[in-house]
Automatic annotation (TrEMBL):
<keyword id="KW-0472">Membrane</keyword>
<dbReference type="InterPro" id="IPR050366">
    <property type="entry name" value="BP-dependent_transpt_permease"/>
</dbReference>
<dbReference type="Pfam" id="PF00528">
    <property type="entry name" value="BPD_transp_1"/>
</dbReference>
<dbReference type="InterPro" id="IPR000515">
    <property type="entry name" value="MetI-like"/>
</dbReference>
<feature type="transmembrane region" description="Helical">
    <location>
        <begin position="36"/>
        <end position="58"/>
    </location>
</feature>
<protein>
    <submittedName>
        <fullName>Peptide ABC transporter permease</fullName>
    </submittedName>
</protein>
<dbReference type="InterPro" id="IPR035906">
    <property type="entry name" value="MetI-like_sf"/>
</dbReference>
<dbReference type="GO" id="GO:0005886">
    <property type="term" value="C:plasma membrane"/>
</dbReference>
<feature type="transmembrane region" description="Helical">
    <location>
        <begin position="267"/>
        <end position="288"/>
    </location>
</feature>
<dbReference type="Pfam" id="PF12911">
    <property type="entry name" value="OppC_N"/>
</dbReference>
<keyword id="KW-0813">Transport</keyword>
<keyword id="KW-0812">Transmembrane</keyword>
<comment type="similarity">
    <text>Belongs to the binding-protein-dependent transport system permease family.</text>
</comment>
<feature type="transmembrane region" description="Helical">
    <location>
        <begin position="104"/>
        <end position="129"/>
    </location>
</feature>
<keyword id="KW-1133">Transmembrane helix</keyword>
<dbReference type="GO" id="GO:0055085">
    <property type="term" value="P:transmembrane transport"/>
</dbReference>
<keyword id="KW-1003">Cell membrane</keyword>
Length: 301
């Protein structure tokens, strides 16, 4: 009499899905346990909502343009003008809201360009090694040796002052940080067993790099990009302050501070409120970045 042996079926896909759910829950608890991370999340959600809804919630949306209202010039904060008015009578609160749109747009575009270039070069340099790695990383070191603001100033001075040129200039000075970060991550994992298995199966270097290695370096890239959002806003505001960003009457925070710097002792609100908006954005992204760093358990410079 024969007996059949039943081999239990193990659903690997279901187990992997449950593990991902557990990791998500663990990450959420870690993030929620950091009060500053929650504060940062609330700050950035508020900033994004204000930027998206600026045309609808700004009390004087027409003041984001080139209007001149001398009968309302340099009015202090009041119920009508929550943040006062500037020397041409334009409502500062309305202009700060529209400035948030430009700041977030600039940060998003800059980091999209910088990450695309830096991550690609870092992956290629780290995986191929040899002369390719040496050439790419020496060029990267040259860019890292130059302060981003100084390099961006040089590019804008050569191409002309405009919002588009500022975004390109900052991205041109920012990609090297991602190239260095990704190259280091690739060097630490490219000899792991799953990479060796991919090579053994005949995968080319492009497939192995972008299909196997890239997903494993997303965490440090995400954390760095979140922290960099605030710093890009700061650099962009600095260039606008110097007159190298979007030109008047475009409402940028840096240009608004530059306009009010000569009136700090008499009309303090003209420069103070745009400065507070910059601080609000930078702190919010830094708080979120710190929280994500704890959740993803990565270290970035």
């Amino acid at each position: 009499m024969s007996t059949k042996t039943t081999i239990p079926f193990f659903d690997t896909e279901s187990a992997a899905r449950k593990e991902r759910i557990r990791q998500l829950k663990r990450g959420f608890r870690t993030f929620a346990g950091n009060k500053l991370s929650l504060v940062g999340l609330a700050m950035i959600l508020t900033l994004v909502a204000a930027a998206l809804l600026a045309p609808y919630i700004a009390p004087f949306p027409e003041h984001a343009g080139a209007g001149v209202y001398f009968d309302q010039a340099s009015e202090p904060p009041s119920a009508t003008h929550l943040m006062g008015t500037d020397t041409t009578g334009r409502d500062i609160f309305s202009r700060v809201l529209f400035g948030a749109r430009l700041s977030l747009l600039m940060s998003g575009v800059v980091l999209s360009i910088a990450i695309s270039i830096g991550v690609t070069l870092g992956l290629i340099a780290g995986y191929l090694g040899g002369t390719t790695n040496t050439v790419i990383m020496r060029v990267t070191d040259i860019f890292l040796a130059i302060p981003p603001t100084l390099l961006a100033m040089a590019v804008v001075a050569a191409t002309g002052a405009s919002l588009f040129n500022v975004m390109v200039a900052i991205a041109f000075s920012w990609w090297s940080w991602y190239a260095r970060l990704v190259q280091g991550e690739v060097l630490s994992i490219k000899e792991d067993e799953f990479i060796e298995s991919s090579r053994a199966l005949g995968s080319g270097w492009m497939r192995t790099t972008f299909r196997e290695i890239l997903p494993n370096v997303v965490s440090p890239i995400t954390v760095k990009a979140t922290l960099d959002m605030g710093f890009v806003i700061l650099v962009g505001a600095g260039l606008s302050f110097l007159g190298l960003g979007a030109q008047p009457p475009t409402p940028t925070w840096g240009a608004m501070i530059a306009q009010g710097r000569n009136y700090v002792t008499s009309f303090w609100w003209i420069a103070v409120f745009p400065g507070l908006a910059i601080s609000f954005a930078v702190l919010g992204f830094n708080f979120i970045g710190d929280g994500l760093r704890d959740v993803l358990d990565v270290e970035v410079d």
